[in-house]
UniProtKB/TrEMBL annotation:
Species per Swiss-Prot/TrEMBL record: Eiseniibacteriota bacterium
Signal peptide start-end: 1-21
Domain of life, per lineage: Bacteria
Protein name from the UniProt record: GWxTD domain-containing protein
Domain GWxTD: 288-394
UniProtKB keywords: Signal
NCBIfam families (UniProt xref): GWxTD_dom
Pfam family, one: GWxTD_dom
Keyword Oxidoreductase: no
Amino acid sequence: MRALSGLLITTLCLIAPGVLAFDITDTPPVPSGARPRFLVGAASRIAPTGAEVQLAFRVPYAELTFTPMVDDSDALLAQFDLTMVLNEGRRQIGGDLWHETVRATPEQSKSRDEYFEKVVTIPAESGRLRASVTMNERQTGRGSFAEWELEVPNYRDERLSISSLWPGTCRDDFTQSPQFPPVGWRLDPRFGDGLATTCIMGEIYRQRADADLEVTWKLLDIRRDAIQTEHLVLTGGRQVPFSIHPDLESLWLGTYYFEIEVKDGSDKARRRFEFRMDETMVSPEGHLEESLELLRIIATKDEINTIESLPEGTRAAGWQRFWEEHDPTPGTPENEFRDAFFQRVRYANEHYGVLEPGWKSDRGRVYIKFGAPDEVESRPSTLEGLAFEIWTYLELRKRFVFVDYDGFGRFELYQPGRS
């Protein structure tokens, strides 16, 4: 018994230093799907008055319904009711209803780059909270809704902790004069344009302030393998702001994680958030093999060869010509063929990615090529057999059988004789 006690004490001494007591992964809220479509976000930090949650709402002008103003023929008007609420269980701890009015020129009213935004700061205790945002247009009666859960850590009782991570516009003086939320807070978890000036910002909280902080940040792929990493040393007091500038432009289509780990003596804390790179990152110039592999799902061999044979620096133009040749409404800003393709790619990545990007999976590739099946028959694994799915496309007269051979939920196309 004495030997066992000694072994336990030795083991505890070995694992106690550097215990990772604070470890949080933030999942982004799902953007509104109904029209008007809007983006939402939430983040938590310690303010001078205590812990707080910032709820954010953003709607592009192009999603709003504008009508001419009676007294000004050159101006348009959009009006809607906006509710932003934070709940703990059934108890509302903050939020309100606002009657919003937006004025715009005819050109602005069609813009997706100009938007209405509201950020609400709400004092909050630690715990699992639920945020909800509702907007209703007064002219049309159209409405949309978003609801999601968020975790507010018990910052005050943690020896070492990290605020939420804000992707936003880089600022040289951020660590000297931090601003929350940062300028250009990216609410959309799908990243695309503007990545060259995007930094990840936040704060580190600790109970002591007599040593340097060792910081390691990483960009992880869908398998949680590190594809970028850097080590930093930060100085400061009990509340240390940071701004990190990862090379997001080098990433391709898919799901990724940004992770920061902090060490203060024997204390460790880690926080990460999930994001996706959108279709604007798909280009044969920077990612030739991956882009052509994706395009092969729908393109002919001759079309692929045409793009592949172009000199470097001109492949992007060939890529653009491919989409233009398949555009069902040439001469309009929209390309419904391209939009539908990448919408299916996003769906495949979100629903069929298991140990690999969803578009690479068998189910993902079938979905991208043919769309949603008319009928799906599924059976879980039993003692008698493996789990399987049968997809039927009635008009196409096609049927695909997917089997979960390894038990991880990957569902590969049925291979006769394989078990």
